[in-house]
Design goal:
Order of helices and strands: EEHEEHHHEEEHEEHEHHEH
Shape: globular
Strand content: 25-35%
Number of helices: 9
Helix content: 10-25%
Structural class: alpha+beta
C-alpha cells in the first residue's frame, strides 16, 4: 500500500477518526489565509508537521461540518511521505503523534466531554493509496440534542449551553414527531430541506434511519434541575446529506412537536421540493448538532463508529 511520491520518498495513506467540540471553530475544513477564522483541519495539519513528511500533509475530510457543529467521530485521509529507505509509520504512531501535538483545547478536551476513553484522534488505519475518505463512506449518522423545560437558554447548565438547542417549551409531542419522521424515511428528493450554497446537483438522498427519542439525563445537570429539564435526541442516518439538510429537518420536526405543524404538512413540504417555504426555510441552531459516526465497509471487515473506537 506504499508508492513513490516526491523524489526519494515513499507515500503511505492513512484513514483517521477524530472528534471535537465545534464551538470555537469556523467548521471542520481548513481556513486558508484568514487569521480571524480557523477550522479543525488547521490544527490537525499543524500537528501532522511533527511527522516530518517530505511533502506537506493535507487532510481530506470525510464529512464537512459547519461552524459550531460538533463531532463524536469524523474521518479523514492523509498521505505521509517518508524518505526512501524508511518504513511507513504504523497507524499507532500516527495516532499518538497527532494526539501529542494537537494544540487547541476544544479538540483536546472533546474526548473527556464526549466520554471517549481515547484522545481526540480516536484511531488510524493504513488504507490503499486510492482510498478516499469522503467517497468511500457508506453511512453517516448525525445526532441532534434538544432540551425542554428551560425558559431561557442561559438558564441551562454552563456545560450544556453550546451542545443542545434549548426550546422555550415545557414538552414536545414526541408521537407526532415520530409520525412526521416516517414521511422523511426512504428515498426522496430532499430539495425542500437544502440550504442555498450547496454544490450538490442531485438532490435525491436515501434516509436509512430516523429516530426521535428521550435522551439520557445530562451529567452536568444538578438533581434539582433534572426535575424540570428534559433532553431529547434526534438521529438521522444516510450515506450522504444535502447542505444543512439535517438542521432543516430538525427544525420542521420541532415545529411538529410544538404543534405548529402537523405530520401531514411535513409530507407536503417534502413533496413541494421548495426550499424557500415558510416552515422548511427554518434552520435549527448549529450547536445542537453532532456528527456521530462515519462508517466504511470496503476495507477491513466492518465500519467503525465512535463507541467502538472509544473502547480501544
Amino acid at each position: 500500500m506504499s508508492s513513490c511520491g516526491a523524489v526519494g520518498s515513499v507515500r503511505a495513506r492513512y484513514l483517521v477518526f477524530f472528534q471535537y467540540l465545534g464551538t470555537d471553530f469556523n467548521g471542520v475544513a481548513a481556513v486558508r489565509g484568514n487569521h480571524r477564522a480557523i477550522g479543525v483541519q488547521n490544527f490537525l495539519e499543524e500537528a501532522a508537521k511533527r511527522l516530518n513528511s517530505v511533502e506537506p500533509v493535507r487532510f481530506t475530510i470525510s464529512s464537512r461540518t459547519d461552524a459550531g457543529v460538533h463531532a463524536m467521530s469524523n474521518a479523514a485521509h492523509l498521505d505521509i511521505h517518508r524518505r526512501s529507505g524508511l518504513p511507513p509509520y504504523s497507524p499507532e504512531v500516527v495516532t499518538q503523534a497527532l494526539n501529542t501535538h494537537l494544540k487547541h483545547r476544544a479538540i483536546r478536551w472533546a474526548d473527556s466531554f464526549l466520554g471517549s476513553a481515547c484522545h481526540s484522534v480516536l484511531k488510524a488505519f493504513r488504507v490503499p493509496n486510492d482510498f478516499h475518505a469522503r467517497h468511500a463512506a457508506t453511512s453517516r449518522t448525525y445526532l441532534y440534542r434538544l432540551a425542554t423545560g428551560c425558559p431561557w437558554p442561559d438558564q441551562l447548565p454552563v456545560f450544556e449551553q453550546n451542545v443542545c438547542w434549548a426550546l422555550q417549551t415545557k414538552c414536545l409531542d414526541v408521537a407526532a414527531m415520530q409520525e412526521a419522521a416516517q414521511h422523511l424515511l426512504g428515498t426522496h428528493d430532499f430539495s425542500a430541506f437544502q440550504s442555498a450554497g450547496s454544490p450538490a446537483t442531485n438532490t435525491v438522498r436515501t434516509l436509512q434511519r430516523i429516530s426521535v427519542s428521550s435522551g439520557p439525563a445530562s451529567p452536568f445537570v444538578l438533581p434539582q434541575e433534572n426535575r424540570r429539564l428534559q433532553f431529547w435526541t434526534l438521529e438521522f442516518e444516510s450515506q450522504s446529506f444535502l447542505y444543512r439538510q439535517v438542521r432543516r429537518m430538525t427544525a420542521v420536526l420541532v415545529a411538529v412537536g410544538q404543534g405548529t405543524l402537523t405530520p401531514t404538512q411535513v409530507k407536503a413540504i417534502l413533496e413541494s421540493q421548495d426550499p424557500l417555504g415558510k416552515y422548511q426555510a427554518r434552520v435549527a441552531p448549529a450547536h445542537g448538532l453532532f456528527l456521530k459516526s462515519v462508517l466504511y465497509d470496503d476495507f477491513g471487515k466492518r465500519g467503525w463508529d465512535w463507541k467502538e473506537l472509544g473502547s480501544h
